[in-house]
């Protein structure tokens, strides 16, 4: 070849060229003649390095795991690529390093496929091999990304809550008592927050959720369940966020994990459960009782004290149904409580709804109230206990406005009753020459009575009014005694009967305490009809209405206004006396004995009359065979015996013989003498003698009367 630079190029290929690399052009410089230059050209097999990188399917970041394993197969030869393991043994398994990579050096020309033997922890195994070619076109390094999907899991919550499912019925003295039974049943509309308990980190090193982060919020369905969306492998906890009103929100943190169950399980499941308790109820009836302190001015002095021993019932207004069955009827009794230190307290669990409290037993001394005190037990929040305070002026729910409004306890009124009675006096009417006619026809105004309690302590004193009525007022349940202490006037006999009154809420009974005889019984359960004062004067209505009609045209505006006010008068209960106490008039008897002045011989058939202090003739009669004249029915007063017809053979003596009836049943005995008729001289002497005797009798009578007056004045002075 001529001197100079020449280029030697390969212009053909050996057989199986797909395994060889082309020889590069060679530059030769010929400088001498005959110079021999030897060149060597070697054909090489095509080889390339291969890097396998495990990557996360979502983040496309390396899966930092050194436990992923692969096998690589030459599809042309059907042989698996092998290597020496750490022990020098030949193996076809290739394992990723801590970077999630596998590096294969100088893999000869060919068509290969990669099969995953073991997926990284937390990931799913590849189901299809990944193919690649070694053909010298990759600048010596083939990089293959092999992605894996993360295994995930769901959590299912089952939530139940206490629900009234049945009712137990018990018989009581107040009727059937319905008691609710509660049990756990699926609960809808309960919301939970799902939080990460620890950092939720996937194999690529990505932190999906930090510890404490809110992951999701879920709510239970009709079956009381929810199932979460797919969650990353890791530790979580559920915490109740909200629940239907009335259910107590639990503060517990419910731990659960989403576990990795292998490379062939794409979605695992976890189950958790929780129970909710139904709220408790506390209904407080605030109660006071009237208490009798004593009596002042014949009126009861009353104070209020904290109630003791009064029974209240709690009623469900609309009743309760379950699955179409009526378990509690309308207005069914669902609770019984007794007052203690001023409160009756209902405690327990009750379904939501409208209720009311009502008194069942007020005891013997107090009037039971028929009033219903409404209380709603429909919860408005999730507190553990609903408290309702019932007062007379309203119900305070959960102490709302409790300290901003006046509160008036319910007051049990004492049972009070009046005992009216009528007082009538006996009077006497003179029917001349016949005697006195006695009748009970006078109102006993002015008579005085004393009322004592069961301990015989005086508590009331009354004076009969102008209508003849006395009223023991404001008597509570118990036993009482009363009697007359003073009559209307001194002509009447004091009634010494001790009357016993026994008062209950059902009846008022009055007895003669000595004999035990029932005098009268009043039914206290019957309310007397009310009438206005105008109705009480109904008998005068017709005449008065005519008079009013006549004067209406001339009436002034003032009169019209007064008429209107009168028409609006309050109705009053008429006073009807329960019984009548009668005062008998003092009466006594008078007996006159008529005898001969000289020998004491009794003189029959003497005409005698009795006159009163006004000289009116009470009665006339004649002495009997024993010389006596007696008359029994003489009211208290001063009288005279007077002779109006002398016995035969005797001189008449018209000198009055005075006497006085002072005490009831008193018998006054008097004597009167007569002188026989004689001649003129003896008659004159006899008349003189009779005059002397008459004067003597009058003097003696005057002296006796003076002594009596002095005695009574002295007694009156001593009493004052």
Specify the helix fraction band: under 10%
Strand content: over 45%
CATH architecture of the largest domain: Sandwich
CATH topology assignment of the largest domain:
Immunoglobulin-like
Give the terminus-to-terminus CA distance: 185 Å
Unreliable residue stretches: 539-569, 695-699, 701-720
Radius of gyration: 64 Å
Shape: rod-shaped
Q: What's the name of the CATH homologous superfamily of the largest domain?
A: Immunoglobulins
Q: How many strands, which pairing sense, and closed or not: the largest β-sheet?
A: 6 strands, mixed
Topology:
Elements: E1 4-8, E2 20-21, E3 26-30, E4 44-45, E5 47-56, E6 69-74, E7 79-80, E8 83-84, E9 90-91, E10 94-95, E11 101-108, E12 110-118, E13 130-134, E14 141-148, E15 152-172, E16 175-186, E17 191-196, E18 200-201, E19 207-209, E20 214-219, E21 225-227, E22 231-232, E23 234-242, E24 253-258, E25 267-276, E26 280-296, E27 299-306, E28 311-316, E29 320-322, E30 325-328, E31 332-338, E32 343-348, E33 354-361, E34 373-376, E35 385-391, E36 394-397, E37 410-412, E38 417-431, E39 435-443, E40 448-452, E41 458-463, E42 469-475, E43 478-486, E44 499-503, E45 507-512, E46 518-523, H1 533-536, H2 541-552, H3 557-567, E47 580-583, E48 587-596, E49 607-612, E50 617-622, E51 628-635, E52 637-645, E53 650-651, E54 657-661, E55 667-676, H4 680-719
Parallel strand pairs: 5-14, 15-25, 26-35, 26-37, 38-47, 48-55
Antiparallel strand pairs: 1-3, 2-4, 5-11, 6-7, 6-10, 6-12, 8-9, 12-13, 15-16, 15-21, 15-22, 17-20, 17-23, 18-19, 23-24, 26-27, 26-32, 28-31, 28-33, 29-30, 33-34, 35-36, 38-39, 38-42, 40-41, 40-43, 43-44, 44-45, 45-46, 48-51, 49-50, 49-52, 52-54, 53-55
